[in-house]
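Problem 3 from the worked examples.
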Amino acid sequence: MTVAGFFYNRRCMEPIELKVDVSDALAAPGPLHIAASVFLPDPAKLVSPPLVIFAFPGGGYSKGYFDLNPPGHRGYSQAQHHVERGIIVVAADHLGVGTSTIPDLTALTVETVAAANDAAIRKISAQLAEGSLAAGFPALPGLVRIAIGQSMGGCITIVMQGRMGTCDAIATLGFSAIHTVLPQRTEAARRQAIAANRFFRNDDVRNLRARGGANVKVDFVYPFHWEDVPQDILDADMKGGYPARKTSPPWGSLTMPAFARLMLAPGYVAQEAAAIEVPVLIAAGERDVIPDPHAEPCAFKSSRDVSVYVVPNMAHMHNFASTRRLLWDRIAQWSLMVAREKSGGSSSRQV
């Protein structure tokens, strides 16, 4: 058996779990660690040039969102979907989320969390490039890095890329760089939800409750899940409460940074979005938190390559939708296009 075959049969289908120390990159009390799951393809099936997707979850969710395995169901793991096509996937929890370090949630800032993600991406990428992440897996010096973020993860990814230029491209999935708005069943309910969340990026998160809006009832099922999501999956996702979860499914998180609520402010990431120069993929479900997906490219003024993809029969939590593979395939195809153009050549393998 070849080394590649040995590696694939023993390790590919199970992720490598990492705790990445990001303390040295932050002006914050430590130690601080990012939890990451690394999904490695069979080396013989790697796309060329080699490609890694770093995936960051939304508020109330953890890195498990990208490797969903609901009991009694198959085909919900985005990570495995990409890995089977030769793409490396790294799913990571933000600081304050899942199994990453949980510091004072009211003290975390979007800039700090973005810097932590940047540090984790750079450290993991260096290990992949030099071949030190896993025994038997080859060094990948020409590795192309793409970050994708769902909802809150999309917001933080925009801040990270705009401030630090971390990756070769980014995809924002279900987050508006103009104004993120939760759709509701009626226009009156939608307007009420907007009125209850009139914030600014620099607002003190400790005073949000005192400013009102706590009594406004927001429907999260309607914006989050399309009507054909299996009832048992919907129940598992929502039964512990949202956004403040009292119990959590394997793909959820009991905690999230307090600044997450501020992300509903208009223009929250305007400055960082305008500074991004790399290719950007904007993806949304047919019913999502982006009021006008086709207006979004205007926010990315410095990028010469901005794509928009709206997926039918899909709500905000994309990976639960029956049409999820349409999105996964678009991300894979777009990522390979970006990698090919960056390398100045053509790919030897299509996905």
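Problem 4, a separate protein:
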Amino acid sequence: MSLNKKINVAVAGATGYVGLDLIRILSNHPNVNIKYLCAQKNIGKKIQYFDKRIKKNLPKISKLQNVKWKNIGVLFTSLPTGESQKIIKKLFSFTNLKFIDLSADFRIKNKKIYKKYYGSEHKAIKLLKLSKYAVSEFVKNDIKNKKIIACPGCYPTSIQIPLIPLLKKKLIKNQNIIIDSKSGYSGAGKNLKKKFSHKNIYSSIQSYAIYNHRHRSEIDQELSTASKSKVKYVFTPTLIPTFRGILSAIYVDKNKGVTLKKIHNELVRSHKKNHFVKILKPNINIGTGNVINTNICEISVCELKLKNKVLILSAIDNLIKGAGGQAVQNMNIIFGLKENVGLK
């Protein structure tokens, strides 16, 4: 793609936490022209009303029905589960239009599993086969010709980036994996108070959905695909009293003859060309401080005083690498741009 050519984009779900971070990134992207910002409410308001970090003069909030689709190259959908599939089904016939979906609508390939976790029938089953689940680092050669890109959830992003290379190389056992993930409360969305009825949600720590968290469906799907067999794990998601960021502590068993150094070296090798993945030296304590407001995933591999056990720490910003930033990274790949354009 020519550096002088602009991609005309529209954003549906502009005023949510993810939508606002996405717009902030797109507004600073040299190859993007934001044509429409869409929402169901607050029609006619400026985006700065919701986020003063966005400095650029952008179109006011409008309805999706007002978009002239022939002029749009990419529609980003940052909508509640079930909404994107209906919209994309209606607009799929526009040959010039690509869809980058930040909801769960096209992540799960099995319609029965989708219904189990999300509680409703999928409305665009035929399009599931035409979509591509896209952790950017693993799909660089697979998404350029895809029309629907399914961006992963935030927790699964932090988990897959370190685990998939190790499962593929069979350096770790595919059972008895313990995943303890802590997230800022923005991960629960703007309807946080409706989802969590107890008091002090902004000043307390709360585990939730430990048996049936929706992200389990895509963790199951992708880890088992990488391992080529069923992966058995425990996943405990926890909200902590900070706005953004995820730290996943992943406890794995090494396979016979595998050392901590070998695991570390494989992660370095696998992510050598991945601009946004930083593998630190072994046994370094990490948190989210270095990754907040970036598209970076930072990883540390640590020895434990338990036979054959290794701790992998993985930190991301849930709203950027776990959502809007990865969406833009996928857009860059699709259009042949450098992955870090607009994300530096």
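Solution to problem 4. The chain has two domains: 7-152+322-334, 155-317. The chain has a mean pLDDT of 94.
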